[in-house]
Amino acid sequence: MKIETLAVHAGHIIDPATGAVSSPIHLSTTFERDPEGTYSRGFMYTRNNNPNRQALEQGISALEGGPAAAAFASGTGASMSIFQALAPGDHVLAHVDAYYGTSRLLREMFLRWGLDVSFVDMSDLRAVGKALRPKTKLAWMETPSNPLLKIVDLAAVAQIVHRAGAICVCDNTWVPTLQRPFDLGADLVLHSTTKYFGGHCDVLGGIVVTNVENDFFQRIRSIQYEGGAVPSPFDCWLILRGMRTLPWRMRAHSENAMKVADFLSEHQKVARVHYPGLKSHPGHETATKQMSMFGGMLSLEVKDGRDAAMSVAAKTKIFTRATSLGGVESLIEHRASIEGAGTTSPEGLLRLSIGLENADDLIEDLDEALR
Length: 371
Ligand SMILES: *Cc1c(COP(=O)(O)O)cnc(C)c1O
Prior knowledge:
The chain has 371 residues and is an alpha/beta fold. 37% of the residues lie in helices and 16% in strands.
């Protein structure tokens, strides 16, 4: 089945009790036991499992092409479960440009917890090889990165990491359906489903998809229900509903972003545009190899630094000043001031989440704000 068809049908059944085409939301926290004491209908208590969560996990794992998935209440909760499935003393290799919440999680929680962490620029394959240690158990890849849209060659990094006996996680939040990490050697795929899966800025969620049902994934599964950071049935329902239109939305986000990037790259007031779809982007060739389109995220650097960037964000009318991404509405964000002290974002940088408005209107809005 092609991805659009999978997105519409995966994890979906017609409700056997009523024939409802849109699945019911099962709010029940507890489920009836059989007279013999068993649970022949498969559910016992919602923290352990719930019909809506199961449908979501089946849907997203079918879409990514893995046998199983574990859903969490946020993307960060999903990331936590992966690090918690390691053991104190294990060494983790993380992309230096990983989502700042992930880097912070590693620095502020898991160093104290006993993980060893090295941050390395994974667009430099020699640096990846050099950073490996005998105790390296896991490599955290993320591409395109935030906010500079740097591209990591997933297949090349996975090969180096596997040779050292470690596993590879790919945070695929920014480009679901456009980049297929399992085909490129990833062992686990992570999504913050808050972003494109939900797609409407109205639900928080995260998921870990595995490409094999092994002991490591079993640990993640038990952290899910023993740790309890599980999503609500309604949140699961919303995220699966979002998935139905995901491939088409990703296509439209990408088409719009390409047009906006082309426009910005010619603009007098703009010093730089970071978008892997542009031929001038240093990762363009690798991106073309591993992505079917280039996604809806881009960033630009204005020529006159922080004040000029803040003023552009203050003047847009269609773009909303807000963090996050992946919704139908376009967002603009001054990244350095959101990340605060220690940020590596250039002061003149604005990150754009390109929505599903008409690209001509977005371009006009930016043109006027830059004037
Ligand atoms: C937002 C985001 C996360 C964290 O997800 P939450 O749902 O906010 O916890 C992780 N990785 C990436 C790339 C993100 O954009």
